[in-house]
Amino acid sequence: MDKQIKVPDGLNKTMIAFLKENMNFSGRKTKRLLKDGLVLLNNKKAYGDSKIKDGDIICFLKQKAKSDYIFPQKMPLSILFEDEYLLIIDKAPFISMLPSKVYGCSLANGIRYYFDQNNIKEPVRFYNRLDMNTSGIVMIPKDGQTHSLLERYSSKTIIKKYQVVVSGIPRVKNGIINKPISVDADERGERYITNKGKDAITKYTLIEAFPNSSLLDIQIETGRTHQIRIHMNSIGHSVIGDILYGVKTQLIKRQALHAYRLVFLHPIKKQSLTIESPLPEDMKELISALKKKHILSFDEIRDKSKGY
């Protein structure tokens, strides 16, 4: 048996209400557990309308191990946080999230190996995803229940922060870009701004201004594919090194975009967590090259700013 619970005093409700309200199971999972006979009440199969009372014993039987058909591949993982429910990784650039014929081994392969080594018999699930050449924080729930609770309790308050180096200098220090983005890509593989797309909101703050470029702090309120790259390009400040929406450069071999902070409510422990990842070396080197003579103050920017 996977888990055994003694019903606390003063509780008098149906099994389905207990699973939803006390165990925080989703309606879908509750129905599946009961249908598959994986919940026992006093050693007998439980039903949704089964009455539970003080002192009853509820047992959750082990589910059949699930498979995601991802081949395990040993690789170094930079772990920023881990407990029995969550694994949070600092993803390096130049590695895709999921395996493909084009890119081969992926972060999912490395997570699968780590799960297998630690006897975690669950599919690899990503709560957030990053583009192949974007670095930074990736959260992996260790089971379906944790993933579901993240969606229910954490998604509305989660804060996702990025640092990005863009061409030019924004006209205003703090800005909001609210432009819908297409669901599908065009023939070149690009997504684009369209009124028929999904809502997308990006907030940015100027951190440092260089003679012809800027370092920005960005927070996204939505998670559309390529959102930051598309939005920054749409206002004339493409991400440096972005060969799809911007211009290739010899100063960095990928888009200068890093997911550096994640603030969220732990879905099980109900405590606020802040996870941070330091700026990677290639972006530090890029910034050093762009600074050249000096960093501009915001007052100096006005004459050099680009309109949009």
Question: What does this protein structure show overall?
Answer:
The protein is an alpha+beta fold and 308 residues long. The strands form three sheets. Strands 7, 8, 9, 10, 11, 12, 13, 14 and 15 form a nine-stranded mixed beta sheet that branches. It has a four-stranded antiparallel beta sheet with strand order 1-6-3-4, with no helix packed on it. The protein has helices at residues 15-21, 27-35, 107-117, 144-154, 227-234, 281-291, 298-301, and strands at 3-6, 13-14, 39-41, 44-45, 51-52, 57-60, 79-82, 86-91, 135-141, 159-167, 174-178, 201-209, 213-220, 257-265, 272-276. A hairpin with a 2-residue loop joins strand 3 (39-41) and strand 4 (44-45). The protein folds into two domains: 3-60, Structural Genomics Hypothetical 15.5 Kd Protein In mrcA-pckA Intergenic Region, Chain A (Roll), CATH 3.10.290.10; 79-301, Pseudouridine synthase, CATH 3.30.2350.10. The longest helix is centred in the middle third of the chain and has 11 residues, at 107-117. It is built from seven helices and 15 strands. The protein is elongated.
Spatial extent as radius of gyration: 24 Å
Number of domains: 2
Low-confidence stretches: 295-308
CATH topology of the largest domain: Pseudouridine synthase
CATH architecture of the largest domain: 2-Layer Sandwich
The helix fraction, in percent, is: 10-25%
Number of helices: 7
By CATH's scheme, which homologous superfamily of the largest domain applies?
Pseudouridine synthase
Oligomer type: single chain
CATH class of the largest domain: Alpha Beta
β content, as a range? 25-35%
Order of helices and strands: EEHHEEEEEEHEHEEEEHEEHH
**Category by helix and strand content:** alpha+beta
> Major sheet: size, sense and barrel closure?
9 strands, mixed
Give the number of DSSP strands: 15
Mean pLDDT: 88
